[in-house]
Amino acid sequence: xxxxxxxxxxxxxxxxxxxxxxxxxxxxxxxxxxxxxxxxxxxxxxxxxxxxxxxxxxxxxxxxxxxxxxxxxxxxxxxxxxxxxxxxxxxxxxxxxxxxxxxxxxxxxxxxxxxxxxxxxxxxxxxxxxxxxxxxxxxxxxxxxxxxxxxxxxxxxxxxxxxxxxxxxxxxxxxxxxxxxxxxxxxxxxxxxxxxxxxxxxxxxxxxxxxxxxxxxxxxxxxxxxxxxxxxxxxxxxxxxxxxxxxxxxxxxxxxxxxxxxxxxxxxxxxxxxxxxxxxxxxxxxxxxxxxxxxxxxxxxxxxxxxxxxxxxxxxxxxxxxxxxxxxxxxxxxxxxxxxxxxxxxxxxxxxxxxxxxxxxxxxxxxxxxxxxxxxxxxxxxxxxxxxxxxxxxxxxxxxxxxxxxxxxxxxxxxxxxxxxxxxxxxxxxxxxxxxxx
Length: 438
Fold this sequence. Notes:
By secondary structure, the chain is α+β, with helices and mostly antiparallel strands. It has helices at 18-25, 50-60, 74-97, 103-182, 189-202, 273-286, 298-317, 360-370, 386-396, 420-423, and strands at 4-9, 30-35, 209-213, 221-230, 241-250, 264-267, 329-333, 336-339, 342-345, 349-353, 413-415. Strands 3, 4, 5, 6, 7, 8, 9, 10 and 11 form a 9-stranded mixed beta sheet that branches. The chain has a two-stranded antiparallel sheet with strand order 1-2. α4 packs antiparallel against α7.
């Protein structure tokens, strides 16, 4: 018989899938006996060995070993079949014509049968190995897919649970914010400061201040509400601390020549809303700015404050697709808002963007060119009262366009993002009815 050799073929997946492959298919070791004559000679004269094929497959470092098919040289196979047929034929011929009997003919038939079956068995063995390899790879792939799917499902479940927890926390936070705004229906030091703290935390109002309409006429009086911490820099002999302030802005004073009186009330925990309103009226009267009952509409101002903070907070949270403001609110007048983004309306969006406002240098240049005429006079949108529009543009020019200015020193005042309850401010929280609130 031809000289035979034994070799071992063991195909593995890459290192990342090796454990999965061994679990799915177990140790794979196929020992095959074959003749070296069945391997095709390469162009360099060396026989192609199984180790050559394994090295080529490993070099690709693929996830799964490809189906290795040996290229057979048909000449030795045909020769083996022909030799086997010839030996068997010779056995029958010698028995018939030469009268050979016994062991000689049987030996020749056995040798011929071995030669005939050698090629056939080798082909069958190669086909069996290929089928086993395909089955092993398919089973391995299925096991890997199942393991990956199980791991992915577990990760997906954990992420879903995490997302639900985050959504629940966000919902509770929104409930707390909405409750602070609703609490303004009973205005007091604690409720007003708490609502302003929420707005400061979200950046819903610009620099911790919001101005609302405080009189019957939109162009007579504005009230500036702020809740912040004074740093106590030594200026004006003001000690450090958290303060809720209400400052009155008389719009007629903006066109007056000379000094303007300061009309401001500090709302302390022991003052009710009525007390603050009375102090504002007294200061307006003593400084000659009281023109009648329409000058200060305190209850309407508190209602306007609630509306302003409600829309500012909802806009910052992006609660709805429409009816939202784009910038942080600075002033709220007759459902119109002056924000960092420009002049806005919840139903119209940004009507006049902040970048459309001219700088002081632009105004000086235009005044020189137009010789006394208004250097910048945008027309009101359709359906908007012209007087209201002129007032909005005039007020917006106080802050717009936004220009970067480096801070000259440490600020003496910063917005406070915590409410009185969180800061542990104790005192009589007086409600409008005069009774202490909880």
